[in-house]
């Protein structure tokens, strides 16, 4: 993914500037990759059955969208469509994250702190 982003950001005098639509889509796709990684990690923590099924379904949906990578010079409409799909799935994962039980913490610091904030 970062290869795509750096390629689109590269500004040579002979190359036209890439569109903001393509850049926005790449940001959404990058966020989708991060959400898919979080889903994979949550599945490895062995959540209750219904949560595992929801996470597996999200992972499969995310992979389908991530496999749709268009060429660098694809039309803006292609990038926009892909960005919208990724954005919808990212929003769905944000909602799903709120429904999931907190993952069990394995090891690490168990001391309570005054400045703890929930991690979203």
Tally of helical segments: 4
Oligomeric state of the chains present here: single chain
Enumerate the spans where pLDDT stays under 50 for 5 or more consecutive residues: none
Instruction: Give the SSE order as H and E letters.
Output: HHHH
Shape: elongated
Mean pLDDT: 81
Structural class: mainly alpha
Percentage of residues in helical conformation: 55-70%
Protein traits:
120 residues, mainly alpha, 62% helix, 0% strand
Notes on the protein architecture:
The protein is mostly helical and about 120 residues long. The protein has a domain at about 30-100. About 60% of the residues lie in helices and about 0% in strands. It has helices at about 1-10, 20-45, 50-65, 75-100. α2 (about 20-45) runs antiparallel to α3 (about 50-65), α2 runs parallel beside α4 (about 75-100) and α3 (about 50-65) packs antiparallel against α4. The longest helix has 25 residues, at about 20-45. The radius of gyration is 18 Å and the shape is elongated. The two termini are about 25 Å apart.
